Amino acid sequence: xxxxxxxxxxxxxxxxxxxxxxxxxxxxxxxxxxxxxxxxxxxxxxxxxxxxxxxxxxxxxxxxxxxxxxxxxxxxxxxxxxxxxxxxxxxxxxxxxxxxxxxxxxxxxxxxxxxxxxxxxxxxxxxxxxxxxxxxxxxxxxxxxxxxxxxxxxxxxxxxxxxxxxxxxxxx
Length: 172
Known about the structure:
Helices cover 3% and strands 52% of the residues. By secondary structure, the chain is mainly beta. The strands form four sheets. A four-stranded antiparallel β-sheet has the order 1-2-5-4, with no helix packed on it. The protein has a four-stranded antiparallel β-sheet with strand order 8-9-13-12, with no helix packed on it. It is elongated.
């Protein structure tokens, strides 16, 4: 088996990565496996993949096996916005300096985990300075002290799902 074209996901939170491969000299029928388990196998590809590194193996009817690895990357410049509309996630002001507020619609009392990430995915330390609730809307205030000017992502983890929003931070 030989790995061919590997296509990364089209956005953060998307599961549309593709690994294409070829098998030659194998005796059919073939059995395919992937670790960690993900995606949908076809004759020459593995599709619907989230970002990650995968070990793909093929075994033929003579029990000859071949394995190879491939990494599906995530496009950090694009964000899956379908969940954001249901969540009604808002970041304001944006651009921000000093502090920022995050509002979202939440039908339960769970407090989300919030992280600020640089564009390489490194977490930037921040402090929650306040949480306010009014009916189904929650507003969380974050301090942006000691964060350099630049473009970042705010990740809100709620109900085991990550939601991302871009933010531009300016130093005071």
